[in-house]
Design a protein that fits this description.
- The chain is an alpha+beta fold and about 100 residues long.
- It has two helices and four strands; from the N terminus they run ββααββ.
- A four-stranded mixed sheet has the order 1-3-4-2.
- The chain is elongated, with a radius of gyration of 17 Å.
Length: about 100
């Protein structure tokens, strides 16, 4: 399946629009990750723990969106958007939402 943030795929005309597809995931950051991120915040640098949570959330949401597009009979998704949001009490949860348009090329 071809997936892209652009509204078209060069060299592949869109033959049919199947509709909007989404993928959502909510991931909790555990106490150890919070502690390690706190140290990174104090000393400076990148937080590998939180970066891994972001990657995992994005990958899971994308897979879910692709599965939904395949179930609709699509073979590509265009105009993909990825949104991240900290939610929950003390913003300890991460929500990743993906959306795009399922199409047949």
């Amino acid at each position: 399946m071809i997936i892209t943030t652009t509204p078209t795929i060069e060299g592949h005309p869109i033959r049919e629009y199947k509709g909007v597809v989404t993928g959502e995931v909510i991931i909790g950051a555990n106490v150890l990750k919070d502690f390690m991120a706190g140290l990174t915040d104090f000393f400076g640098g990148r937080s590998g723990q939180y970066e891994q949570v972001l990657i995992e959330g994005k990958d899971t949401a994308m897979k879910e969106m692709i599965q939904r597009a395949q179930a609709m009979g699509a073979n590509a998704i265009v105009a993909i958007d990825i949104d991240y949001e900290a939610i929950g009490q003390s913003s300890s949860m991460l929500m990743v939402a993906t959306s795009g348009t399922a199409v047949v090329i």
